[in-house]
Amino acid sequence: MVYARHVQAASTGNQQLTCLQLGNDAGLLHLRQRLLEREGVTLQNIAQRNEFERSIARVEPDVLVVDWTISFDDRRMLAEQAKRTRPECVIMAFHASARNDDWVDCACDSRRGLGILMSAWNQCLNIAQLRRHGHAELEEEYVFVADAHRKYVYASPAALSLLGFTLPEMLSMTVDDLTFPRTEIAPAMFEEFKRTGIMEGDYVLRKRSGEPLRIRFKATALDDGCLVSRWQPA
What is the CB neighbour count within 10 angstroms for residue 115? Predict the structure, then answer.
């Protein structure tokens, strides 16, 4: 039996984000429900799995959570259904190996504790807010978004493909981690950007293989203080 739950979570922008959570273990879902409710997230029952597609169409979730208790093939199928219904839907997978899956936006092993769960949840909220706002900058081919702590909160599919990372892997990194070679240049440039609000120039990124990738970039600030960097290979 696959259980579905509807999650409503207040974002930092005071907008309501909706989420469908699916899993085979009702007890595990209830446990996660209690943990999230302590952090201000409200969950309620919606449907069994055979009503999943109707629930997606009715709720139009910002986030789809698929639990590790569902088989890999079913997780991927459910994610694809959600994307067809709502292309901007964020896919969150509760499975350690999901970090390597290209159809997952955010991966989490919730058995590691509340801190890991909430960190992953906040990543989902960040991505969902970016997609909901429809920033024109995000429509370009090669795009990164980083928060005020230089931690990545979004990367475009083309950027991920060129560098060889999945989105969950990118969300665990900072700008410093992708700088080639890793030096103190990233913090200094970031501080300058925060003073000016705009920056452009040349930079060298590190691919997954360890090879350098020279780019030409232009960075601007979003309303929430994040930095969005649009770039092209040099």
Answer: 8
Domain with 210 in it: 136-233
Nearest to 74 by CA among 82, 84, 86, 62: 82
Domain end: 133, 163, 179, which one?
133
Mind listing the pLDDT tens digit of every residue in the chain (234 residues)? 344 444 444 444 435 667 777 777 777 777 777 776 776 665 544 445 666 677 777 777 788 888 887 788 888 888 888 888 888 888 888 776 766 677 888 888 766 666 777 778 788 877 877 777 666 777 789 999 888 888 898 898 899 999 999 888 888 899 999 999 877 678 888 888 888 888 999 999 999 999 999 999 999 988 777 888 999 999
pTM of the model: 0.68
